[in-house]
Amino acid sequence: MKEQINALIEERAKWLFANRPYIRAIRLFINTLLSYNATLDLAIEMQDWPSDKIMDRMGRLLAQRVNCTGLEHIPVSGPALIVSNHPTGIADGIILHRLLATKRPDTYFFANSDILRIMPQMEDIIAAVEWRTDRRTHAKTRSTMAYTKQAVDEGRLGVIFPSGRLAKRRGLRLYERQWMPSPVTFARKFDLPIIPVRIEARNSALFYLFDWVHPSLRDITLFHETLNKYRQHFCVHIGKPIAAKELPIKPEEAITMLYHKTLALKGTGREQDKTVPLLSKWHFSLARLPHITKVLRQRVYAGLQKVGLKVKSLM
């Protein structure tokens, strides 16, 4: 289990595994900061569990502060496809599973196959998708389509995050990334009603601090940012189903329509403009923040340089 988790981390930050004393010191510090041992212990505990038990355990752990509206729009049976924004990462799927588990225990998720490298037994609820175009192959696409067809034939409810990645930070706001047209393809091919879902949530301040410094630091918070969500408030808004035949003919227009319908759920003003504030509970002038963040980044860079890390090599 440790080897699999380390492999995922190394793929995201190869420099962190360099065989140099100061790098080892940095890795030890980051492992402590990101609760690496606690994450590993939990993974070992669940490594032989079936997927439903894993999701129940994670749901009970994380879904502490969740509000939901529109659950009545979820059909009690029959195939359908949820499209959702993706503000935080893995936790978004866990929260949705927790909300849907009683009404639709047959729910499955389109997700990156990395989770199957750690928990292969999750394949009964994970339709592996390769979001990165440079790694996409015809074989992978056929496999995803075959999984989807079987799930539809079994009358299951699917969940897809069309952005493929969690929301991007720009300054002090989160922006939902551009959506890929996969949901439109699935909906039309299998005549699936599409249910828009909007999740309002954010990651920790540490995540966005790491994002300011370098993407590799941000990416290695993958597990930490999942397990700390018991402190985060999630608001989930579920919209009315949209029939496949109601979608515009052109795929790009269809996915744009779904994008805007999803992000408009319960949103007002700038929230309808695909953004979420990172610091909505801070009560000081936002005009000061560019200076504050600049100073913060300078201090982080200075700290890394003091321990001998070549910052330029990470940029």
UniProtKB/TrEMBL annotation:
<dbReference type="GO" id="GO:0016746">
    <property type="term" value="F:acyltransferase activity"/>
</dbReference>
<keyword id="KW-0808">Transferase</keyword>
<dbReference type="Pfam" id="PF01553">
    <property type="entry name" value="Acyltransferase"/>
</dbReference>
<dbReference type="InterPro" id="IPR002123">
    <property type="entry name" value="Plipid/glycerol_acylTrfase"/>
</dbReference>
<feature type="domain" description="Phospholipid/glycerol acyltransferase">
    <location>
        <begin position="80"/>
        <end position="202"/>
    </location>
</feature>
<protein>
    <submittedName>
        <fullName>2-acyl-glycerophospho-ethanolamine acyltransferase</fullName>
    </submittedName>
</protein>
<keyword id="KW-0012">Acyltransferase</keyword>
